[in-house]
């Protein structure tokens, strides 16, 4: 089989890869935003509970959790589609990392901003949403970009729970024609072709931001 | 179906044994990754060709999934005449993958050592190799200790992927057991829990490194 034919075969899976990426992103960003802000804002016992929850998602391995939710759910009459399991596990894992980035960004804003806000008579929550959060979000833009790349890469895992993404298609074509060198070079190429433009875009964005601030 | 505690407890000896292989592979992968990272950090400073090759390799690794890299080495190396055990291929993939990330860290670490240190050493009459090993390296290690420890955690969390190519580590053992009994709940719970314990322990270790080994 020619290299082009292999590449075309792999690309049949691109819509699944994209769908899993999009669904995961729908989990990642709300997760990071909500829990990042909450961890920054909460104190005492609720904060401890939240930290444990976030650390659970950060400390486990995506591949183990993916299998766990895929196989263990049905035993307790919870039937989730492979898409749902994939988006949930990938989303919560990467979202947990993102929440830490947002929390760190919020903490890095000087106390002067908050004090100035309360001197102007804004409530604590209005200071958070009108003054601190916009600045923190600006700081995490490059991290959010890297997270999208991370989601695309992690989406390859769903091939292990039976979704026909590009990685799954590679295994399929391996069974049809045993040409590993061509197939897996093409597969690496597909992922790099998706991720490289994103990486370059993030790089350009960061440099533009630096120029503007300078 | 529910949860069969008796079966759950009976799995532990095998899972624990498998977990030793997980830890061993992660340890070997860490050593390999540090070596690859050092080579890349040095390669990027050795002329134009070295820089382009090392940068290209680093980007290729950083922009593709670990799983795909693992498949690539597992299926393609034999075509090139290199037949290795699944475990060796797994450790090699871990080394190359995390080596690419560590190369960036080490490069930044070398850059972070103030220029004056090298100049002062030269003024004191130290030779090139003495400057590298006695002046730059010890200071650079302090810069890179914390990020390196964090990559070691990621590396541990990536090790279960080796099960995909048939390495009988923790997740692989859990799957073997599951396909014997057709019960997935208990083996995967056991592997998941034990893994969480290991990763929390290593996480604590990393936090200790982060707190105690800092740039001077």
Automatic annotation (TrEMBL), chain A:
Specify whether Transport is a keyword of the entry.
yes
Domain ABC transmembrane type-1 as annotated: residue spans: 14-202
* Keywords of the record: Amino-acid transport, Membrane, Transmembrane, Transmembrane helix, Transport
Is Transport among this UniProt entry's keywords? yes
**Major place of localization?**
membrane
Q: Name one Pfam family in it.
A: BPD_transp_1
Q: Which family does it belong to?
A: Belongs to the binding-protein-dependent transport system permease family.
The places in or outside the cell where this protein is found are:
Cell membrane
Q: How does it sit in the bilayer? A: Multi-pass membrane protein
Taxonomic placement:
Bacteria, Pseudomonadati, Pseudomonadota, Alphaproteobacteria, Acetobacterales
InterPro entries referenced in this protein's UniProt entry, alphabetically: ArtM/GltK/GlnP/TcyL/YhdX-like, MetI-like, MetI-like_sf
Q: Which PROSITE patterns match?
A: ABC_TM1
* Membrane-spanning ranges: 6-36, 48-72, 78-98, 183-206
UniProt xrefs under Gene3D superfamilies: MetI-like
Give the protein name, as stated in the record: Amino acid ABC transporter permease
From TrEMBL, chain B:
Where does it localize?
Cell inner membrane; Cell membrane
Question: Entry's SUPFAM superfamilies?
Answer: MetI-like (SSF161098)
**What's a Pfam family this protein contains?**
BPD_transp_1
Gene3D superfamilies recorded for this chain? MetI-like (1.10.3720.10)
Q: Which family does it belong to?
A: Belongs to the binding-protein-dependent transport system permease family. HisMQ subfamily.
Q: Which organism is it from?
A: Plastoroseomonas hellenica
Q: Where would you find the membrane-spanning parts of this chain?
A: 20-42, 63-81, 87-110, 131-153, 188-206
Keyword Transmembrane appears in the UniProt entry: yes
Q: Which UniProt keywords apply?
A: Amino-acid transport, Cell membrane, Membrane, Transmembrane, Transmembrane helix, Transport
Q: What is its main location?
A: membrane
* Protein name, per record: Amino acid ABC transporter permease
Q: Which InterPro entries match?
A: AA_ABC_transptr_permease_3TM, ArtM/GltK/GlnP/TcyL/YhdX-like, MetI-like, MetI-like_sf
Give the way it sits in the membrane: Multi-pass membrane protein
Is Transport among the key words of this record?
yes
């Amino acid at each position: 089989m020619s290299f082009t034919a292999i590449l075309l075969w792999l690309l049949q899976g691109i819509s699944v890869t994209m769908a899993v990426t999009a669904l995961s992103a729908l989990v990642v960003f709300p997760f990071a935003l909500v829990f990042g802000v909450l961890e920054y804002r909460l104190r005492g016992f609720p904060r401890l509970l939240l930290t444990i929850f976030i650390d659970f998602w950060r400390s486990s391995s995506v591949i183990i959790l993916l299998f766990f939710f895929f196989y263990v759910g049905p035993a307790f009459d919870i039937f989730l589609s492979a898409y749902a399991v994939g988006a949930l596990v990938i989303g919560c894992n990467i979202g947990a990392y993102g929440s830490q980035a947002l929390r760190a960004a919020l903490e890095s804003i000087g106390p002067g901003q908050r004090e100035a806000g309360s001197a102007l008579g804004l409530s604590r929550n209005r200071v958070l949403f009108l003054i601190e959060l916009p600045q923190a979000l600006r700081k995490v833009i490059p991290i959010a970009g890297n997270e999208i790349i991370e989601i695309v890469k992690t989406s390859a895992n769903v091939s292990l729970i039976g979704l026909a993404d590009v990685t799954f298609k590679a295994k399929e074509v391996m069974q049809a024609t045993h040409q590993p060198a061509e197939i897996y070079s093409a597969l690496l190429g597909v992922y790099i072709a998706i991720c490289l433009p994103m990486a370059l875009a993030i790089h350009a964005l960061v440099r533009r931001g630096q120029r503007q601030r300078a | 179906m529910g949860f069969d505690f008796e079966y759950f407890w009976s799995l532990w000896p095998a899972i624990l044994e498998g977990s030793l292989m997980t830890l061993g592979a992660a340890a070997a992968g860490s050593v390999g990754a540090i070596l690859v990272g050092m080579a890349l950090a040095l390669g990027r400073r050795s002329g134009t060709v070295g820089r382009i090759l090392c940068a290209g390799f680093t980007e290729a690794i950083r922009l593709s999934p670990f799983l795909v890299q693992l498949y690539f080495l597992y299926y393609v190396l034999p075509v090139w005449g290199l037949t290795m055990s699944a475990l060796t291929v797994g450790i090699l993939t871990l080394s190359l993958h995390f080596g690419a990330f560590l190369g960036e860290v080490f490069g930044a670490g070398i850059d972070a050592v103030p220029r004056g240190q090298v100049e002062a050493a030269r003024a004191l009459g130290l030779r090139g190799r003495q400057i590298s090993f006695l002046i730059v390296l010890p200071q650079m290690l302090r810069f890179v200790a914390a990020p390196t420890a964090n990559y070691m955690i990621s590396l541990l969390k990536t090790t279960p992927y080796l099960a995909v190519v048939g390495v009988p580590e923790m997740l692989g053992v859990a799957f073997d057991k599951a396909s014997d009994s057709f019960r997935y709940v208990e083996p995967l719970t056991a592997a998941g829990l034990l893994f969480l314990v290991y990763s929390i322990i290593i996480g604590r270790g990393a936090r200790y490194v982060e707190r105690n080994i800092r740039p001077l």
